[in-house]
Design goal:
This protein has about 130 residues and is mainly beta. The longest helix is centred in the middle third of the chain and has 4 residues. About 25% of the residues are buried. The protein contains one helix and nine strands; from the N terminus they run ββββαβββββ. It is globular, with a radius of gyration of 15 Å. The strands form two sheets. The protein has a six-stranded mixed beta sheet. Strands 1-2-3 form a three-stranded antiparallel beta sheet, with no helix packed on it. A hairpin with an 8-residue loop joins strand 7 and strand 8. The model has no long low-confidence stretch (mean pLDDT about 90).
Amino acid sequence: MQPAAGSLLIASAKLMDPNFIRTVVPVLDGDAGGSLGVVLNRPTETPVEQVLDPWRHLTSEPGVFFRGGPVELNAALAVGALRDGAQPPAGWRTLSDATTTSVGIVDLDSTPDDFLGQLTALRVYAGY
């Protein structure tokens, strides 16, 4: 069974893989070739401003990178939540086809100013 984008995967208490023990992973994208997600609950000590300074004002507390997973640890990925009634700016991709879904992926190559006042939360991940 292929988990749909927007689904949450919660690690079983019996899972002992150190990459996923005690984790919660939202599925950000998926197809027959596999799924893309990030570990929600692994903060690092690296401040976002140290690597992606233009995004620091939009990043939610604690303002650090989260370790998104064991793949591509030097790649950054951002997940955000749109404010109610906000029009999705360029650089935004909703996680599912549901029109009420306010969680999505933020393209970090887009302009942070386009997101000012549009987000209620933003978290940046190293890896996926």
